[in-house]
Amino acid sequence: MTMPSLNRKRLRLVAPVALIAATVGVMVVPGPQSSAAGPVDGMECETSSSNSFSLTASGGYASTPDGNAIYMWSYGDTGGSFQLPGPTLCVESGAHVTVALRNALPEPTSIMFPGQNNVYANGKPAQPETDANGTLTSMTTSAGANSGTVTYTFTAGNPGTYLYQSGTDVQKQQQMGLYGALVVRPKGHADWDNNNSSSAFSPEHEYLFLLSEVDPDAHLAVERKRAFNWNNYTPRYFMINGRSMPDTIAPNHAAWLPSQPYGALIHIQPYDAAKNPKPALIRYLNAGTTSYPFHPHGSDEQLIARDGHPAQGPGGEDLSYSNFLIDPAPGQTIDTLMTWKQEYDPKTNPIPSDIKLPQLQDQIVGPGTETWFSEDPYLGQTNSQLPAGVVQNNQCGEYYHVAHSHALQQSTNFGASFGGMMTLIRIDPLNGCPTQ
Ligand SMILES: [Cu+2]
Fold first, then answer.
1. pLDDT at 220
2. What was the pLDDT predicted at 203?
3. How far is the centre of ligand 1, averaged over its atoms, from the C-alpha of 406 (Å)?
4. How far, in Å, is the centroid of ligand 1 from the Cα of 404?
5. Do residues 59 and 72 make contact, with C-beta atoms less than 8 angstroms apart?
6. Locate the Plastocyanin-like domain: which residues (predicted)?
7. CA 253 to centroid of ligand 1, rounded, Å
8. Total domain count, the chain
9. 185 sits in which H/E element
10. Are 356 and 321 a contacting pair, CB within 8 Å?
11. Cα(394) to centroid(ligand 1), Å
């Protein structure tokens, strides 16, 4: 396939990803307020020089890999198009942030900013709302149905990763998709996760994993204005950034996913003290109703923060730890650093002879006949002796590892394996991946 000639080296690396999606895609430049041309993979920040954002809550459709179209509610840029999840808002700690909400939904809605203190709504402290009987109707000041507005202001707190989400009829509205990510960056250190220099990461390798789930029956009931018995709630789709595998590995702004702009492919290079000294940063957010026992294959990750709090003791001791399992609870956020350490080298440190490598037929996957293995165990090398008819997705001897929820029903699309809350980690050779 021909890639558009945007001036970005990393563009050409997505060719096999687009290929596996079996769709010829054209890169789309992001919406009006998104940063620059936007990276093909990695977290895409929405920034504002005045830290002012305008969001509209509205309805639209998200597609799933099995061909379903789910009616969702979400926050999008006012004047822009519907998107799931809401824009990733990036601000600096201490900034005075304004978020103007316009409500295009047929019922009141709102935005909560958990983790931010002293949130104001229309100039007064934001506060819960009750109906005439004193029953709680919203956990924060809402915007009325059908074009109501409310403007929230707050001073961005501790650096870290936060959800923003509806505070109104939360069970229904959060399920419908009213959530997004708020990233608070340390003052003067946009390439640190928090105020500790040990949280430095490579800005080219910053990733968002906003995890959520969908019960299509609930969404159909809302779309058709029917009652839904939440006792029957059964999620069938599981998403990273509003997409399910294999859509998770498609590029940001893939043309065939017009309302799901954010990909979830991790794309890194091995550690090298001179060429690649800094780790990748992955920001996990759980906007669902249950824990998602997420884990990468092939490497662990260093958990460095939860809910905007660095993993450190009262005296500042480093309490970060390395783990395969990253298990955010509902409403929780977790930040991790990931470093790929290259263990073996064909010249200096070859693989021990007693390690048996898997046979080629065990590396070929369906549907169809494809392989993501270069047939050479060393990163950056290929040994292509493929049987006729096998499609090689490997470009330059890069590695692919899966990363997914290990609650395996969450790694399905309506029960069909593998899909759902799953993505790939791609590790390129240190010097990049030359086109072939
Ligand atoms: Cu696994």
1. 98
2. 96
3. 6
4. 6
5. yes
6. 83-187
7. 27
8. 1
9. strand 179-185
10. no
11. 21
Could you tell me the distance, in angstroms and rounded to a whole number, from the CA of residue 381 to the centre of ligand 1? 25
DSSP 8-state code for residue 251? P
Residue 48's pLDDT is 97
Output the pLDDT for position 367. 67
- Closest to 87 measured CA to CA, from 98, 76, 71: 76
Distance 292 CA to ligand 1 centre (A): 12
pLDDT of 54: 98
Quote the domain boundaries for residue 98.
Answer: 1-436
Q: Is there a contact between 74 and 86 (Cβ–Cβ < 8 Å)?
A: yes
Blockwise average pLDDT, block size 10, the chain, 436 residues: 33 35 30 47 96 98 97 98 98 98 98 98 98 96 98 98 98 98 97 97 97 98 97 98 97 97 97 96 98 94 98 95 96 97 90 86 77 87 82 89 96 95 95 74
For the chain, how are helix, strand and coil distributed in percent, rounded to 5?
10, 35, 55
CA of 106 to the centre of ligand 1 (A): 41
Nearest to 400 by CA among 285, 267, 303: 267
What is the bridge-based pairing of β-strands 129-130 and 124-125?
Answer: unpaired
Q: How far is the CA of 434 from the centre of ligand 1 (A)?
A: 30
Q: What are the backbone angles phi and psi of residue 231, rounded to the nearest 5°?
A: -65, -20
Predicted confidence at residue 102, as pLDDT, reads: 98
Distance CA 205, CA 200 (A): 11
Give residue 411 CA to ligand 1 midpoint distance, Å.
10
Gap from CA of 34 to ligand 1 centroid (Å): 33
Q: How far is the CA of 278 from the centre of ligand 1 (A)?
A: 25
Task: State in Å: Cα 295 to ligand 1 middle.
Answer: 6
- List all residues 6 or more positions away from 176 whose beta carbon is below 8 Å from its beta carbon: 72, 73, 74, 218, 219, 222
Distance (angstroms) between ligand 1 centre and the Cα of 409 equals: 12
Determine the distance separating the centroid of ligand 1 and the alpha carbon of 422, expressed in angstroms. 9
Instruction: Concatenate the DSSP letters of all residues of 288-352 into one string.
Output: SSS---EEESSS-EEEEEETTEESB-TT--B--EEES-B-PPTT-EEEEEE------BTTTBPPP
Rounded to the nearest angstrom, the distance between the alpha carbon of 403 and the centre of ligand 1 is 6
Cα of 327 vs centre of ligand 1, distance in Å, is: 13
- State the DSSP H helix or E strand holding residue 222, giving kind and residue range, or none if neither: helix 216-223
